[in-house]
Amino acid sequence: MAPSLSDNRTLHILNAAAAGKYGVLAAIAYNIEQLTAIVRAAEAKRSPLIIQLFPSTLKQLPTLAHAAAAAVNSATIPLSLHIDHAQDEAHIREMMETLPVDSIMVDMSHFDQAENLEKTRILAKECHERGIAVEAESGRINGGEDGIADTGDLEALFTAPSDVEDFINASIDILAPSIGNIHGDYGPSGPAQGQLHFDRLESINKQINDRVQIALHGTNDFPPQVMQRCIRSGAIKLNVNKLILEVWNVFLRENASKMGIVGLIDEGMNVLQKETERWMDICGSSGKA
Ligand SMILES: [Zn+2]
């Protein structure tokens, strides 16, 4: 029997979070240490968690997705494996066929709107036939992340009500709206006053009316209260990268010349686990598994 979306782990996690009015971290891991630390945080906090890998990481570390899937299968809390910003159609089809993924962000935002929607619709159908859920980005979220085409030369476009309907009609499951959020750094104190359009997020959420879930991209430098405001406005899947991983980067930078490799890995994982736990508390997902 073909796998069904009703069994999809990512959607189960997000639907429960939407019903319970809390947010779930969708945390990027670049290596096995980071993967291990975020999963340990989820277990320690009894929190659901979405593990995110970039397509570039799948190529750099071909076994990491399988390690993540092993973590998903052995965890005592709800976990899922999501691929962030998949922009290459051939690579997306390869992922569908060869990797144990629960959901994929089909990011065709580098095409014009009509082509974006058409490609998204076709890929979503193929994913759904395999029980894989699909996220897409509407409008353009400016900036570049690892291995992702930078859309900074294109006009930053906010998500309009018509975009919401267009993407829902393309059969996606998760929508990443553009509400002033950017890929990259806002600066040490986070988004400037007025940079994030919470009212726009709220009206998008109302318009969606539970038909799909909302993902928030571009959370670097977010203060806790900004994250919580986004959750109250309807964001459920919270993509985090540097927001959580920066403590790991700093720890390695400061200790790489002083510690042996085993200690460095141990202590680095501890630091990252604690930081992930802190954000699970902030997002309200602790104790919800
Ligand atoms: Zn993103």
Describe the structure.
Helix 2 (32-45) runs parallel beside helix 4 (64-74), helix 2 packs across helix 11 and helix 10 packs antiparallel against helix 11. The radius of gyration is 18 Å and the shape is globular. The longest helix is centred in the C-terminal third of the chain and has 23 residues, at 261-283. The chain has an 8-stranded parallel β-barrel with strand order 1-2-3-4-5-6-7-8, surrounded by 9 helices. The chain is built from 11 helices and 8 strands. The model has no long low-confidence stretch (mean pLDDT 94). It has one domain (5-283): Aldolase class I (TIM Barrel), CATH 3.20.20. It is α/β, with parallel strands linked by helices and 289 residues long. Bound molecules: zinc ion. Zinc ion binds at residues 85, 145, 183, 217, 239. Its EC number is 4.1.2.13. Its cofactor is Zn(2+). Pathway: Carbohydrate degradation; glycolysis; D-glyceraldehyde 3-phosphate and glycerone phosphate from D-glucose: step 4/4.
* Alpha-beta classification: alpha/beta
Radius of gyration: 18 Å
Our measurement of the CA-to-CA distance between the termini, rounded to an integer number of angstroms, reads 28 Å
Identify the bound ligands: zinc ion
Spatial sequence of strands, sheet with the most strands: 1-2-3-4-5-6-7-8
Overall tally of domains: 1
CATH class: Alpha Beta
CATH topology (level 3) name: TIM Barrel
Order of helices and strands: HEHEHHEHEHEHEHEHEHH
Number of strands: 8
Mean pLDDT: 94
- Mind summarizing the main beta sheet? 8 strands, parallel, barrel
